[in-house]
Design a protein that fits this description.
Number of helices: 16
Distance between the termini: 50 Å
Helix content: 55-70%
Shape: elongated
Largest sheet: 3 strands, antiparallel
Order of helices and strands: HHHHHHHHEEEHHHHHHHH
Strand order of the largest sheet: 1-2-3
Strand content: under 5%
Number of strands: 3
Structural class: mainly alpha
Length: 324
């Protein structure tokens, strides 16, 4: 009876919080509408097409841990509010310098800050992974393209030297006896890297609980596609050198690259399942401690969120966000 009453009280307080948060986020997006539109426009490109999936996936990751909120009540953390005008000023700098990636990043950061402040730090720890995942919606990574091009060319030339294939590297152009190959922007592997890192983040959020394993797998999600792309460049050049010039030059390198790297990533995820961690089961001590909770403090009072505090936080946050 007490447990049912407690759950009902918590769910009621969280419904109010989610409603206020939804309205706050919507108003914030309207305030920064031009930034939101420019970010959504980037999602229509092939490189950042995954961005449109980030919000619903983040919501799903948060929904998976909804039972962890039964022992928590949303309590606004007003100490986060000073961060909002700082972010607004950062957005203004991005606006003045026409640096869209800064504007996009700051908009997501303001949304995360308002969510964090509205639900409180204890609850924010529970949904830390979904909140961090929202930053994957920011179209960023273009600055990595030149570095990825250089690395792929360097990695391929090292493998060519190792396999006794005569080759010369000039910038990003690899010359072999049968012709020249350039590691262009499309061959940088940025799409493979972003896709692997995005899927890997969801993967660790579902399968792992310890941060050590999460960080280790995310590191592998970055390293493996970068190395695989260099191996792909090497493979195309070797096919050309061994007499398959027509096949190497007529093949769809983008499609072939996706197929090759996808196989590598699937193998990586298959290996990662060996260290999966099951979600902790609810201990029987939880039910026995309900009476103790009731005696030490009214859980109903703890679960009931002050609507006025939430509204005050939301109004203050939006007011500070409008400073820019």
């Amino acid at each position: 009876m007490q447990r049912a009453t407690l759950r009902k009280s918590f769910s009621s307080s969280w419904r109010v919080t989610l409603l206020i948060l939804g309205c706050t986020t919507l108003i914030l997006i309207v305030m920064y509408w031009s930034t939101a539109v420019s970010m959504a426009a980037q999602w229509l490109t092939s490189t950042y097409s995954h961005g449109v999936l980030i919000p619903p996936i983040s919501f799903y990751l948060g929904w998976r841990v909804r039972h962890d909120f039964e022992s928590l009540a949303p309590r606004p953390s007003f100490w986060i509010l000073p961060l909002v005008p700082v972010l607004a000023f950062a957005w203004l700098l991005g606006q003045l310098t026409s640096t869209y990636v800064i504007q996009h990043f700051v908009l997501v950061a303001m949304i995360v800050s308002l969510v964090w402040g509205a639900i409180g730090t204890p609850a924010a720890r529970v949904v830390g992974m979904p909140l961090i995942f929202l930053f994957f919606a920011v179209p960023m990574g273009d600055s990595l393209v030149p570095w990825l091009q250089d690395f792929s060319a360097w990695f391929a030339i090292k493998l060519l030297d190792l396999t006794r294939v005569p080759a010369l590297l000039e910038g990003r152009i690899i010359t072999i006896p049968s012709g020249k190959w350039e590691v262009a922007e499309a061959c940088s592997g940025i799409r493979f890297l972003l896709a692997s890192l995005t899927i890997g983040f969801v993967y660790v959020g579902i399968l792992y609980r310890k941060w050590e394993r999460r960080i280790a797998f995310l590191a592998a999600s970055v390293l493996i596609p970068v190395l695989a792309n260099g191996l792909r460049v090497y493979g195309i050049i070797v096919i050309d050198y061994l007499g398959g010039t027509r096949f190497a030059r007529s093949a769809d390198h983008v499609f072939a690259g996706w197929l090759f790297v996808s196989i590598i990533i699937v193998l990586l995820f298959a290996v990662g399942t060996r260290w999966r961690e099951e979600a902790p089961e609810v201990s029987s001590k939880d039910s026995s401690s309900e009476g103790e909770l009731t005696r030490h403090g009214s859980p109903e009072n703890k679960a009931t969120t002050s609507v006025s505090r939430l509204v005050l936080f939301a109004v203050a946050g939006l007011a500070l966000a409008s400073a820019a």
